[in-house]
Amino acid sequence: MSGQFVVVGGSSGIGLGIVKRLVADGHHVTVLSRTGEAIQSMDNVTHVVVDVTQDEITADILPDTIDGFAYCPGSINLRPFRSIKPEAYRDDFELNVIGAVKTINAALKGLKATSSASVLLFSTVAVGQGMPMHASIAASKGAVEGLMRTLAAELSPNIRVNCIAPALTDTPLTERFFSDADKAEALGVRYPLARTGTVDDIAAIGQFLLCDASSWITGQVIGVDGGMSSVRK
Questions:
Q1: Which of 68, 93, 132, 151 counts the most CB atoms within 10 A of its CB?
Q2: Domain limits at 38?
């Protein structure tokens, strides 16, 4: 049965991968993003031009019923702690946390209009692993994990809330790490599964968590990270 889904940041990267999978399964997707060239020709997709850090987000731009909601915007601000200014922390928090809060608030009416709905957020493997150069992004994504668990408790039993924590994945946001083939291969060697991630690696789990196949999963951080968070070779 087809459903109504909302994907914030669904016009590129992992968000676009999730949109493609949902549409292929016959669902309708409303995409909130600043640009939408990649989705203009797609059937069953409605694009709403929104900047989540600047614009007011209201329920009237979203479907009346929402079966699943994914917040996919992210940042990758990797610098030594001593060189990160407070403004960078604020910017990362605004995008990763406040943007999620604003859009989830707008989506709540539609999510509550269904008997069973799902919310998907994104963290990073760096929250649990303590990686150098990740102070700002790990701080904001750690807040995302706390938000996810709180919402999972508060919105149960009819709305499930989960989080994916990827490791390095080949997306437009991380393209500088993959511009050199030899460098990209060397990065992959660090992982127990001997490669970095692809958009579809993450989107496949995102689709699963958004749909009824995961109907007994809530409050979880799912590591999709090639084994980095739990396995040592």
A1: 68
A2: 4-221
Dump pLDDT digits (tens) for 106-121.
999 999 999 999 999 9
Phi/psi for 68 (5° steps) reads: -155, 145
Q: What angle do CA 173, 136, 148 make, to 5 degrees?
A: 85
Query: Tell me, what CATH number does 8's domain have?
Result: 3.40.50.720
pLDDT digit string, tens, across residues 144-154? 999 999 999 99
Ramachandran region, residue 130 (left: φ > 0; alpha: ψ -120 to 50; beta: rest): left
Is residue 99 classed exposed, middle or buried when 0-12, 13-18 and 19+ CB atoms within 10 A define those classes?
Answer: buried
With a CB cutoff of 8 Å and minimum separation 6, the contacts of 138 are: 124, 126, 127, 130, 131
On the question of pLDDT at 218 being above 90, the answer is yes
As a whole number, the mean pLDDT across the chain is 96
Residue type, 191: Y
- The verdict on residue 31 lying in a domain is yes
CA 112 – CA 225 distance, rounded (Å): 32
The pTM of the full predicted model, rounded to 2 decimals, is 0.97
* Residue pair 70/11 in contact by the 8 Å Cβ criterion: no
- Helices and strands: H and E segment counts in the chain: 8, 7
Structural domain includes residue 232: no
Burial class (CB in 10 A: 0-12, 13-18, 19+), 186: exposed
Structurally, the chain folds into a number of domains equal to 1
